[in-house]
Amino acid sequence: MMLTERCAALMFVCLAGCSVLCGCEYGASGAENSGAGLWLGIEPAKEDEFGKVTYADGIYLSQIVQEPVPDAYADDTKADRSGVTDDGLRYTLYQRHAEITGHEDSFALEELEIPAELDGLPVTRIADVTLTEGSVFDLDRNGAFYGCYTLRSVTVPDTVRDIGQYAFYGCKNLQEVTLPESVMEIGSHAFSVCSSLKELTVPSGIDKIGESAFSLTPWYDDLLYHRDLVIFNGRLYDAGRRCTGHITVPDYVVSVADYAFYSCEGLETVILPESVQSVGEYAFCDCPDLYAVLFLNPECEIPAEVTTLSNKQNNSSKDFFKGIIYGEENSTAQRFARKMNFSFESTANFFARMEAWKST
Length: 360
Fold this sequence. Notes:
It is a single chain. This protein is α/β, with parallel strands linked by helices. It folds into two domains: 3-42 and 233-359, no CATH class; 53-226, Ribonuclease Inhibitor (Leucine-rich repeat, LRR (right-handed beta-alpha superhelix)), CATH 3.80.10.10. It is 12% helix and 21% strand. The protein has four helices and 21 strands. β20 (324-327), α3 and β21 form a beta-alpha-beta unit. It is elongated.
């Protein structure tokens, strides 16, 4: 199929299937389209169930994007003193709150309940694991719960707002994590390489999830193999293994995270609705079959890097994009295309091609 015909076909897919909030190429699941479902092949939630946990794997069927709760202790930065609990948890006390910072060599709990308070102060954070030399090979081995092999379950109290980077990295026997709705941020690699983790529910109002926060865990692998897109609270974080062909991002999604569609083979076209305010770094990098991206928000933030969107094949050393970027005239998409020397065409042309295709 010629590029012109393929782009027209894309628009037909967009309009004909606009009731589907997130659609891969029809036939991937063999299911009937449904106006309320986020993924083909998954029964949609009933209207009065929106906002409630529908599946134990942490997916929420809600079109309402919740605003993050501000950090009430962001200005409480002066450390008062540090200590160790009877269970071997290291902590730091500030003026108005406390943080869990690490563990002693003697720490050996299998079932851990993070304390809600220490010395009368609320525990609001599990701190980052320090990279002593700036490398993953030089992590503080006693930071947070890095590599705590004895852990099998963790319960986090509703005072905690942030879980730091690498906080539970490499806890190979950790099977279950209970996170409260108070958690707004989960740092990069926080639960990476927890090779037994099968039960976890992401808070419905989560604001930020860092890069590879759940990588190499059975829980997240299951999401990738059974979902077209992984979306939490209006943030699109990852493309599932079934994500091929023509993709229409749901019209409540507000951002596309870094690396969201990275190295997504078989992805051909993407329609980003007007609700999408930003696209992350490397969001569409190394997508060899991608030939069209439509930006319907004329003010969408796009990283001005050639690696944001490319057709580079695996093991290739040069990024390039031979497809077309579509958007409004004088939009950020047009400025991005000009700077990267990519082909650009207007949204009007996109619709015109669709109409021409339908009339033939």
